[in-house]
Each structure stands twice: as C-alpha cells, then as structure tokens.
Amino acid sequence: QVQLVESGGGLVQPGSSLRLSCAAFGFTLDDYAVAWFRQAPGKEREGVSCISSDGGSRFDADFVKGRFTISRDNANMYLQMHDLEPQDTAVYYCAADRAEKRLDPDYDYWGQGTQVTVSS
Questions:
Q1: DSSP string of 23-74?
Q2: Which residues pair with 4 in a beta bridge?
Q3: Band (107; pLDDT cuts 50, 70, 90)
Q4: Torsion of CA 90, 71, 18, 60, to 10 degrees
Q5: Mean pLDDT (whole number) for 9-30
Q6: CA 11 from chain center: how many Å?
Q7: Is the confidence at residue 1, as pLDDT, over 90?
Q8: β-pairing, 58-60 with 46-51?
Q9: Buried/exposed code over 16-41 (b: 16+ C-beta within 10 A; e: otherwise)
C-alpha cells in the first residue's frame, strides 16, 4: 500500500524551529517530485516548498522568506523550519508525484497531515 506519513509537528513559541519529516511506505521517492503544503483553519491549502525528483531544483512560496528548507532522500522528505511565526500555524501535508508540479496542489499522493501551532 502506497502511503506517506508525516511527523514532527507540535506546539512551539514564535521564533522557534521545527523539523517535519515525511516517510514513504510501499514505494521509494526516487522518481517522484515532492512538496510540502499547508492549510490553516478557514483557508485553502497552499504550497510551501517543493523539490524535484533529482533534488536539483527547489522552489519556495514567497512567505517562506528563507526560513524553511526542503530536503529529501529516497525514502523521506523533510521540512526544516526556522523563525516560526503565528501565521505559520496550520496542518502541514507532504505530497509526491511522478510529474514535476512545483506548488500546483494536483499531486497524486498525500500524507494525512501534521499540526504545527505557533503561539506564545
């Protein structure tokens, strides 16, 4: 069974760091472009960062502002987040697709999401 499973979310204070992980089960990520999306309460899902199947191309949403870094290996993808702000509060989802879709949300495979809450 093909599955993506996120972990690493939590409640942190503004200015803190978190590292999200996403593990692939039932397939390897070698031939897949991967991305992180997020959805805040009452808002649409939005793309955060993506990385190509060969790891050579990355793209971030404007709001990332250099604070987040996406990375990957053949079984996992990661999102290292620094200097978190309350506006970053959302459920974060990982996604994978054989096609390079950047931050278009039309990915084939999705994780179940992990909650990130930034609050003092």
A1: EEESS-STT-EEEEEEE-TTS--EEEEEE-TTS--EEE-GGGTT-EEEEE-S
A2: 24, 111
A3: very high
A4: -50
A5: 96
A6: 17
A7: no
A8: antiparallel
A9: eebebbbebeeeebeebbbbbbbeee
Q: Which residue has the tokens 């390079």?
A: 100
**Token pair in block for residue 52:** 């190509």
Dig out the tokens for 7 from the structure. 């972990």
∠ Cα 44 108 35 (to 5°): 60
The number of beta carbons lying within 10 Å of the beta carbon of residue 78 is 19
**Could you give the CA distance from residue 110 to residue 81 in angstroms, rounded to a whole number?**
20
Separation CA 14–CA 80 (nearest Å): 15
Q: Is 94 exposed, middle or buried (0-12, 13-18, 19+ CB in 10 A)?
A: buried
Would you say 22 and 107 are in contact if contact means Cβ atoms under 8 Å apart? no
Q: pLDDT tens, 33-86?
A: 999 999 999 999 999 999 999 989 999 999 999 999 999 998 999 999 999 999
- Round the average pLDDT of the chain to a whole number and report it: 96
